[in-house]
Amino acid sequence: MRHAGRITGEALLVARDAIKPGVSTKDIDVKIRAYIEKCGATPSFLGYNGFPASACISINDEVIHGIPSDKRIIKEGDIVKVDVGARYRGYNGDSARTFPVGKVSDEALRLISVTRDSFYEAMKAARAGNRIGDIGYAVESFVISNGFSVVRDFVGHGVGANLHEEPEVPNFGRAGRGARLYANMTLAIEPMVNKGLANVKVRDNGWTVVTEDGSLSAHYENTVIITDTDPILLTDVDNY
Ligand code: MG
Ligand code: MG
User: Fold this and answer.
1) Residue 42 belongs to domain with CATH number
2) C-alpha 223 – ligand 1 centre gap (Å)
3) Of 53, 187, 196, 228, which has fewest CB within 10 angstroms of its CB?
4) What's the gap between Cα 20 and its chain centre?
């Protein structure tokens, strides 16, 4: 899990360095795949339920599951979400970041930072003895207090030998409710935060999830190990 997590996190650094105006989302995907394979790992997303690429790359009002395309060109002012998984020796990492491209609006930057900070609110609640609902409550109460909303139709999850495992980890919930957390559980905790309403819909391609009201959305995800104290972040190789 540590190796898979490190490779996943490094693949996101490759994406961060490659994202600039004029580059296609396919170009980013090709670089991510090449890096993962160079490490002796395989892209967890490629072929998963038929997904045709190594990364999900979602721009602006696209929340998750954007399909890389040579026709989708990144522009100044976009916010670009990259979600990556790498499988190494039978175990998976899963991580996502939201990258601003050039000069973006102050509100977009605030959305990105609130989303990141909501993950760290979750980290305070994610420890052995607490419950899944403590994580969701921490994320949503923080996000709402900042005037944004959390996506409710898609959730975090356990991760390990399979990319998606039990338990589900919603970004909302009631403190003290849900499955208990134990040391050494490995979870993908991933706030998806909308500037407007929480409602989302799936585009005609059957994959890409977008905000129903067209507002911006941000995503921040790490694979973590639950412990008796602070969680261990496996995919955060550069603390950004
Ligand atoms: Mg992910
Ligand atoms: Mg995930």
Assistant:
1) 3.90.230.10
2) 9
3) 228
4) 20
